[in-house]
Structure formats: C-alpha cells, structure tokens
Amino acid sequence: MAADAGFAGIVTMSMAGTTRQMTLSAPEGAKNADGTTVLLLSPLYEPQLLSMHADGMIVRGWQRVLGVPNDRTGKNTPGATYLQEWVLTLVAQRPASMRELNTVMATPLQLVQGN
Q1: Which H or E run includes 102?
Q2: CA distances to 16, 51, 104 from 43, in Å
Q3: Which end of the chain offers a freer environment for a tag, N or C, measured as fewer CB atoms within 10 Å?
Q4: E strands along 3-106, which residues?
C-alpha cells in the first residue's frame, strides 16, 4: 500500500450540539461560494487523543461519509460511519525564544460552538 501524502490545513476542535468534532479545513482564506470554510475531510466525531509526541499526535473518532442526494428533498442522506485515526503532524513555526513560547502558552485555548 502506498503512503498517503496527506493534507495540509488547519485542525479545529468544536462542539456540534452535544457532540465533539474535529475538522481539517483549508488554509486561511479558502472559502466555499457561500462563504463557509472549505473542509478537506469529513469531520471526525467524538475524537480521542491516542498519543502525543514532539511533532504531532494521533486521534481516533468516527467519520461519516456523505450519502447520495435524496431525489425528493435534494439533501444528502446519511452515509456509512467508519472508525478512523488521524495522524497529525505539527508544521507551524516553532517559537524563536522562551519568551515567545510563554506568550503563546499564556493564551487560553477556546472551544468554539459549532452549528
């Protein structure tokens, strides 16, 4: 099996109602015609951190494939759901100094409420 080259994007964790979800979106500036963020993969629901190391992490969750459009309503019917693991490699620039690192770490993480 050939190695998957993967995607480069922005990983976000949010809540969709009472369900946690992780999304991988295109780099900033990429928008759909309706102004929404371009998702590179279907969301990963109820993600769990399996391992973390110096330059990345592995998360596991449930990913739903989009179904086919319903002829009567035009909306997609729910597709199959699969257990997936995402191997995330951190590629952001590392802080140049401890002072810069302390500034970044002092910023609280925020959980964004999803739709």
Answers
A1: helix 98-106
A2: 10, 20, 27
A3: N
A4: 10-16, 19-25, 44-53, 56-69, 76-89
